[in-house]
Amino acid sequence: MIYQVLYLVFVFLxxxxxxxxxxxxxxxxxPSNSNDRRNNKTSLRIVQYNTEWLFIDYYASSDCxxxxxxxxxSTEAEIHLSYVSKIIADLKPDIINICEIEGCDExxxxxxxxSDEYLPYLIKGTDTSTGQNVGxxxxxxxxxxxxxxxxxxxxxxxxSKCGYSGTPSxxxxxxxxxxxxxxxxxxxxxxxxxxxxxxTDSTRCAEREAQALVLQNIVLGYIKKQFExxxxxxxxxxxxxxxxxNKDIPTSQVLDILKGKxxxxxxxxxxxxxxxxxxxxxxxxxxxxDKNNDCKSSANxxxxxxxxxxxxxxxxxxxxxFIYHVYDEFCNTYNSDHYPVxxxxxx
Length: 347
Known about the structure:
Elements: H1 2-17, E1 43-54, H2 74-91, E2 95-101, H3 104-114, E3 119-122, E4 133-138, E5 153-155, E6 169-171, E7 175-183, E8 186-194, H4 202-224, E9 228-234, H5 254-259, E10 273-274, E11 287-288, E12 302-303, E13 306-310, H6 312-315, E14 318-323, E15 341-346
Parallel strand pairs: 1-2, 8-9
Antiparallel strand pairs: 1-15, 2-4, 3-4, 5-6, 7-8, 9-13, 10-13, 11-12, 14-15
């Protein structure tokens, strides 16, 4: 009898998990022995990719897969995952930061379909409303377990032009992780983050500026320890210095803050460089928003809100930077509404 029960558990548990209301697992602990599984040890390919609701396990709060997100059932969600897998396999990253992923189950599904050279890493955030997290697949094992900061900053921040007129409050970065690498004898901190959505909404703008200050303090701590920095993710904001293809102008100071600006003195605590400066202006777009609801993408509906920022030493070693515009955007596509951002660093 016991064997029959065990058989039923192992056979049907995977199916039950797709509709489970239980929380997903974490995978933030690194192996005791760090390994580097890159084919070319002199080059490092980093990819930033918002994969748009990469959920296979059912998450009740957001009803996803379901009517609460893009993928209305498990079949659609699984097809979407197969599309994402193909894109990642084509890009062959050494490290890929993934936004809008549910958890380690989905990371492991990607790994299974792409290559076991990758290991999945994710520490759950605090966005319990959507259930979205930020995770990564890496061919290089980090040296320390992924961790996150519960620090909070007050908004509106000093000098904010977001137009927020509500009661001052505080916020933190609900979706992010921090970890450390030594790659080719270079100490590198990798910080993956997904900031609050809606670039021009006054409340979200103010909250996002406070989130940027939290990340700035983390970066500054590592700069003081003489680490190289890779800060990447969906920042949901524009860069007023390295403008996107539609010359979108931010109302916030988010990118300035992340790059190191001291908002009170207009000087800099440190300097991070946007790799977008190495990409032609006409190619600087990473996300589609269907402004007129006609389900067809047009040039004026794209913006660049996904970014990779790096310290001078790494920036000077970037040999290639591009955005992977290989698929068209339209309603009912199984591809993400974002495009991957890629850099190659010669080490």
